[in-house]
């Protein structure tokens, strides 16, 4: 879609007992990230959407909103990037290129999930069984 030359993005967030929907432009993404964070009841967040849907772009905004000044990039080849937030570490996973769930275990995925730090996960469907078993139900 186009809005005066600006692409519009649409995001739906399934949050504890409710759903939030946002339609926004890239210029609004930092504001959206700041509005979203207080509603995230868990620090493990799964991002779904096809290639080019803006998952990494939104994660960059969330990392900034959490007080990090680190350069945020997609961990497509490294599988995980780590950032220093104002109050905790932030881990950004991208499982697009993994061939099996064992690869996630090989990088210590379980330890990251139970660290109590923020974990933003792209392409979680590649490790869906692992996520169903390991994602903490509260943190």
From TrEMBL:
GO BP annotations listed: tRNA threonylcarbamoyladenosine modification
Where, subcellularly, is it found?
Cytoplasm
Q: Which Gene3D superfamilies match?
A: P-loop containing nucleotide triphosphate hydrolases
Q: What is its main location?
A: cytoplasm
In its UniProt record, a GO molecular function of this protein is:
ATP binding
What this protein is called in its record is tRNA threonylcarbamoyladenosine biosynthesis protein TsaE
Q: Which domain of life, per UniProt?
A: Bacteria
Xref: SUPFAM superfamilies: P-loop containing nucleoside triphosphate hydrolases (SSF52540)
Q: Which UniProt keywords apply?
A: ATP-binding, Cytoplasm, Magnesium, Metal-binding, Nucleotide-binding, tRNA processing
Q: One GO CC annotation, please?
A: cytoplasm
UniProt lists the family membership as follows: Belongs to the TsaE family.
